[in-house]
From TrEMBL:
Compositional bias segments (type: Basic and acidic residues): 1-20
Protein's name according to its UniProt entry: HAD-IC family P-type ATPase
Organism in which the protein naturally occurs: Nocardiopsis tropica
Compartment(s) where it occurs, according to its Swiss-Prot or TrEMBL record: Cell membrane
NCBIfam families according to UniProt: ATPase_P-type
Any single Pfam family the record assigns to this protein: Hydrolase
Keyword Transcription regulation on entry: no
InterPro entries tied to this protein: ATPase_P-typ_cyto_dom_N (IPR023299), ATPase_P-typ_P_site (IPR018303), ATPase_P-typ_TM_dom_sf (IPR023298), ATPase_P-typ_transduc_dom_A_sf (IPR008250), ATPase_P-type_domA (IPR059000), HAD-like_sf (IPR036412), HAD_sf (IPR023214), P_typ_ATPase (IPR001757)
Length: 862
């Protein structure tokens, strides 16, 4: 069964996924059968028979590790029903259920509806994720009955013979049975970044990945028996937690929980023992209990219900779930939900070139003979290249293009015996082979011209000139040392330049323009020649691409490296380790970094980045470590992904500000009323009305609205900076209206309560307007609709009866409106002053950063 090389990654950098691309033809048009042992092919192994596989499945010796997936239906229901907020609401509803009336228990219906909405939205998100996860699942190659077939990871059984190549992730633990220059990176397990050369008899561990060569191994541990598999299972579980946003919300909820008990106790004590004696009356005909205790309990419930931000957790879950569903429509798999939050904060995107900014495939443009052959009857460059393509155990993008070019032209590989083999490695940036030819044993290498020869040599200069036109150029050279020796390749004699053509994606330019408009810097980080990287960047209009940087010239000092990477935009000859260091340096400079890639050479950087984005046709290793997978391989989807992240997080911050404003004004009102020993101005039904028209209903629309603001760290403090002053002003305004309309009494009538409702609604609707900026037609309509609903509740007989409202006293209505007007002015002034103070602080920080940068630049020049 022929090996099937799939779309590799950044050509001179490595190979990637084998799951989606057909076999690339070799010099004769098809890859040869791996019929016998040798340097260039695996031995003849039959693997397990189908009967043996069935016997192992029956006895449970399978790789029974669950696929990466969302939470189960039961987990979703439990997570939405058994919450801290629902527990609080249940206790308060129980009190109202005992003392009545039914209108005061309306808040429980809101929680019920919220919970159902949350469950439905998350189930929709689960279906989306599960479908995309199936598409993204790796399909390892196994040998069964002598044929190489693809199976799911869960279908692997004990003693299975698996076949791997560059970019494949090791699915289970095993022992190598054949190796063709097999090099494995175990850094995700051990932390050691240096690849490990594997020979027959060596062990391989699940979770590691192949960086060079090919091989076969026999599975010795499968499923949960493999330690790395257990780690992968835990790490791959879908999660709604572990993000700044959710931890911030949980911290706020903890503070509120602690505040509920003393405030509730204060209200009960002040209204019972400071304002009169307890008398418990018999239930009325309607089932309602009246009297001081019942009234005190109703007031306490009204206050505590308003203190609880019941919709905040719901809307956070809904916003995340809707984000997952929307991204799913663009074939974007969210493997870790907090990645949506990280996307909102991205201000730097690092991307490789081939397969991301350029089309995945390349084609052989020309072979330029440099005349470096020793004698006239030496093999021609075409013969050598054909032989290299035929013996390569695992084609990368460049070798696949060469093989396809020869296959279409009918060029056949010479019948040479392979004596040594060095598969392509992203670290050394060349591959090679030794052949026993009619003229004797010869060693040939193919790779980067400025790596194999001196950068100022004629061959390297010509390669740089061609690369500046956006072409990929490789050098074919004769090596003086065996390619599999420690001192390979030794002295090299340039023979020919291999020119490969690559096409820039049509939508790449528009994608970079979007990022520029959104204040997101783009860095092209490629293993290709810097001139080639700069040419692609210039074609796409990337600022700074006219001055590309060879990553080998960058400082070894981490700080200086980070500053240089921050200033420049196009980098060539970047090794996998250097990619990781560049991403780490940008993070150390305070940036939120997204890394896109598709090859094994991108794995370390993808793991290091705040957000790793892999291409769906990329290597299994890159897909496994990324938080997001673009299943249709379109870099142009990334702006939609970033925009979705900003929409979700920006809107959650808005909604949080609204709900916490409600919490703060309720706390303020409850504490002052408790200290003054007057009756609480509201019943729970009033609190339900206020919460619904000012924050509850509008927040559903705001949570799903467009939003392009870049999210920044400091969610909790930034939210409280708006909520605390606005809430305190609204609370003091409500108390002021209450005391004015009471006129020295301690027990309010419906007209008094209505006046306070008017003050709070008018004030908090103004806060809603401040948070809802920028204004568009639907936001104006939304606020107008809320005012209309409030008016209907106040002027219609049904509304007045249900909510116990009375607007028959114009003086009290005007008092409520007048106090609200003063509060609105105060909130506006506070907001303007705060915005200006923040702007000045950010300007000072920017100036200090600029001065620091100038100092470093001057020091480096010296």
């Amino acid at each position: 069964m022929p090996v099937q090389p799939e779309r590799p990654d950044d050509g001179a950098e490595g190979a990637s996924d084998r799951d989606s691309q057909a076999a690339a033809p070799n010099v004769t048009g098809a890859r040869p059968e791996r019929a016998g042992p040798g340097l260039h092919g695996p031995p003849s192994e039959t693997g397990l028979t189908l009967a043996e596989v069935a016997e192992r499945v029956a006895t449970g010796r399978t790789n029974d590790v669950p696929v990466r997936a969302s939470r189960s239906v039961g987990q979703i229901i439990r997570a939405n029903v058994f919450t801290r907020i629902n527990a609080m609401i249940a206790v308060l509803f129980t009190i109202i259920a005992v003392i009545g009336p039914v209108q005061d228990g309306l808040f429980a219906m809101v929680i019920l509806i919220n919970t159902l909405i949350g469950i439905v939205q998350e189930l929709r998100a689960k279906r989306t994720l599960d479908k995309l996860a199936i598409v993204n699942a790796a399909h390892p190659r196994v040998v069964r009955d002598g044929a190489t077939v693809r199976v799911t990871t869960q279908e692997i059984v004990l003693d299975e013979v698996l076949e791997v190549g560059t970019g494949d992730q090791i699915a289970v633990d095993g022992v190598v049975t054949w190796a063709g220059g097999l090099e494995v990176d175990e850094s995700l397990l051990t932390g050691e970044a240096d690849p490990v050369l594997k020979r027959p008899g060596d062990t391989v561990m699940s979770g590691s990945f192949v960086v060079a060569g090919a091989g076969r191994f026999r599975a010795t541990k499968v499923g949960r028996h493999a330690y790395a598999a257990r780690l992968a299972e835990e790490a791959s579980r879908f999660s709604l937690v572990h993000s700044e946003l959710r931890s911030g919300i949980n911290r706020i909820l903890t503070w509120i929980t602690y505040a509920l008990f003393p405030i509730g106790a204060l209200l009960i004590y002040s209204q019972l023992f400071m304002g009169g004696h307890v008398t418990l009356e018999e239930p009325t005909a309607g089932g309602q209990i009246s009297g001081p205790l019942a009234d005190a309990l109703r007031g306490m419930v009204a206050a505590l219900v308003s203190m609880i931000p019941e919709g905040l957790i719901l809307l956070t879950s809904i916003a995340f779930a809707v984000g997952v569903i929307r991204l799913g429509k663009y074939k974007c798999l969210v493997q870790e939900l907090p990645a949506i939050e990280g996307l909102a904060r991205v201000d730097v995107v690092c991307t490789d070139k081939t397969g991301t900014l350029t089309e995945a495939g390349m084609k052989l443009a020309q072979i330029r003979d440099l005349g470096g052959r020793a004698v006239g009857d030496d093999p021609s460059p075409t013969q050598v290249l054909a032989a290299l393509a035929a013996c390569d155990p695992d084609h990368n993008a460049s070798m696949a293009a060469i093989a396809q070019g020869f296959g279409s032209s009918g060029v056949s590989a010479p019948d040479w015996t392979v004596t040594a083999l060095a598969p392509f490695s992203s670290a050394r940036k060349w591959s090679g082979a030794g052949f026993l030819t009619p003229g004797g044993e010869e060693h040939w290498v193919l790779g980067a011209a400025d790596v194999l020869s001196s950068p100022d040599s004629p061959a390297a200069a010509e390669a740089a000139r061609l690369g500046s036109q956006g072409l990929r150029v490789l050098l074919l050279a004769r090596a003086s040392a065996r390619v599999d020796s420690d001192d390979a390749p030794g002295e090299v004699a340039p023979v020919a330049l291999v020119v490969l053509d690559q096409k820039v994606r049509e939508d790449a330019g528009a994608t970079l323009d979007y990022f520029a408009g959104q204040g997101v810097d783009v860095k092209i980080v490629s293993g290709d020649h810097a001139a080639s990287v700069g040419a692609v960047g210039r074609e796409l209009g990337l600022p700074g691409a006219e001055d590309p940087v060879d990553a080998r010239s960058l400082s070894a000092d981490a700080g200086e490296l980070a500053r240089e990477v921050e200033r420049r935009s196009a980098f060539g000859r970047v090794t996998p380790e250097r990619k990781r260091d560049m991403v780490r340096g940008l993070k150390d400079r305070g940036h939120t970094v997204a890394m896109t890639g598709d090859g094994v050479n991108d794995v370390l950087a993808l793991k290091e980045a705040d957000i790793g984005v892999a291409m769906g046709s990329g290597s299994p290793a890159s897909r496994s470590v990324a938080q997001l997978v673009l299943l249709d391989n379109r870099f142009a989807v990334l702006p939609r992904v970033v925009a979705e992240g900003r929409r979700v997080i920006g809107n959650i911050e808005r909604v949080a500000s609204l709900f916490l404003t409600k919490t703060v004004y309720t706390m303020t009102l409850a504490i002052i009323v408790g200290l003054l020993a007057v009756a609480y101005p509201f019943f729970p039904r009033h609190a339900t009305l206020i919460n619904a028209v000012t924050f509850g209903i509008p927040s559903f629309f705001l949570a799903l609205a467009p939003n392009t603001d870049i999210a920044k760290p400091g969610f909790v403090m930034r939210t409280l900076r708006l909520a605390i002053p606005s809430g305190m002003v609204a609370g003091f305004a409500a108390v002021t209206t209450y005391l004015l309309v009471l006129g020295g009494r301690t027990v309010p009538d419906p007209a008094d309560r209505t006046a306070v409702v008017i003050t709070l609604c008018a004030t908090t609707l103004w806060v809603l307007l401040l948070v809802a900026k920028p204004y568009v037609w639907w936001k104006v309509l939304m606020v107008g609709s809320m005012v209309g609903l409030l008016t209907l509740a106040m002027v219609t007989p049904l509304g007045q009866w249900f909510f116990d409202l009375d607007v028959s006293d114009p003086a009290k209505v005007l008092t409520g409106l007048a106090v609200a007007g003063v509060a609105i002015v105060a909130i506006t002034v506070i907001r303007v002053v705060d915005d200006r103070w923040i702007a000045r602080s950010e300007a000072r920080a920017a100036e200090e950063a600029a001065r620091e940068e100038d100092g470093h630049r001057e020091a480096s020049m010296v």
